[in-house]
């Protein structure tokens, strides 16, 4: 059984591909570069999906938050193109396949939901686009939408803040915390809807393997915390102090005003449908996750 993925060499993609291979899938990543177990995007356009492809996962995307990478119009276009163009290419390959895959899983983000200090969001909530990230997620999900008459099951996973040792936010902050220089981000009161990388990969594989799973899933842990609770838990797991706050002035200098503001805000997002479909979280609490991240 083949499993095709766009973005299989990225942070989330590496973990998903490893887990899928362990379950007996032959994993083929679609990449811009020629490499073992990869096909190029041009190959996909010319030749389509492998004949025995049972699942396609879209995980491509230029990282949104990069230190000293300001959100210029050019950068925003690159972020958008890296998600939407490649997702559309995978969708077209599915629609053109003589034997369509059983399932198409596409990632999106919790930036779909409006920042709020008090409101709880589930997959059932609808939000109108109000900033760059919310516009991006809406267009990304539209790009992944299959026709109603498609025989391929469709799942969209809105990812939270993914925590893992080898990528994402932890990779950017671990040295600061290890040196005892960690602390709250801004006020620390903003919501931090997180998920451990092993659960992120687990949800995607669960969606592939279970025919009952369809529609929108929130890829977040069932116990979101305030940002300050996360930084305290991570510092504690490392046996380091939690003293030095990261003010908005510094964030704006490093990421630019627009991206810096994103880090100062957040949403409380719950994985209601993910749990209803029966997924069991390996790391349901931030303390459990941080203990693993600190080892």
TrEMBL record:
Pfam families: DUF1731, Epimerase
Domain DUF1731 residues, every copy: 247-293
Stretches assigned to the NAD-dependent epimerase/dehydratase domain: 7-211
Protein name: Epimerase family protein SDR39U1-like isoform X2
Originating species: Biomphalaria glabrata (Bloodfluke planorb)
């Amino acid at each position: 059984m083949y499993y095709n993925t766009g973005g299989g060499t990225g942070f989330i993609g590496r973990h998903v591909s490893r887990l899928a291979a362990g379950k007996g899938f032959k994993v083929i990543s679609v990449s811009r570069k020629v490499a073992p177990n990869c096909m190029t995007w041009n190959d996909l356009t010319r030749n389509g999906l492998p004949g025995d492809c049972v699942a396609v996962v879209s995980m491509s995307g230029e990282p949104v938050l990069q230190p000293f990478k300001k959100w210029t119009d050019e950068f925003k276009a690159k972020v958008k193109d890296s998600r939407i163009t490649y997702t559309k290419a995978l969708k077209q390959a599915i629609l053109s396949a003589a034997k369509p895959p059983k399932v198409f899983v596409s990632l999106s983000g919790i930036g779909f939901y409006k920042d709020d200090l008090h409101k709880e969001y589930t997959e059932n909530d609808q939000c109108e686009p109000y900033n760059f990230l919310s516009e991006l997620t809406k267009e990304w999900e539209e790009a992944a939408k299959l026709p109603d008459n498609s025989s391929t099951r469709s799942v969209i996973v809105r990812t939270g803040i993914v925590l893992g040792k080898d990528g994402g936010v932890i990779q950017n902050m671990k040295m600061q915390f290890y040196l005892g220089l960690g602390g709250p981000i801004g006020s620390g009161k903003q919501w931090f809807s997180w998920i451990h990388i092993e659960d992120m990969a687990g949800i995607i594989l669960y969606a592939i393997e279970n025919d009952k799973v369809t529609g929108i899933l929130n890829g977040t842990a069932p116990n979101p915390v305030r940002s300050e609770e996360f930084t305290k838990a991570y510092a504690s797991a490392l046996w380091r102090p939690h003293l030095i706050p990261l003010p908005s002035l510094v964030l704006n200098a490093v990421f630019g005003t627009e991206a810096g503001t994103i880090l100062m805000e957040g949403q409380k997002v719950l994985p209601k449908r993910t749990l209803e479909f029966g997924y069991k979280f390996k790391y349901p609490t931030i303390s459990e996750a941080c203990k693993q991240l600190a080892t």
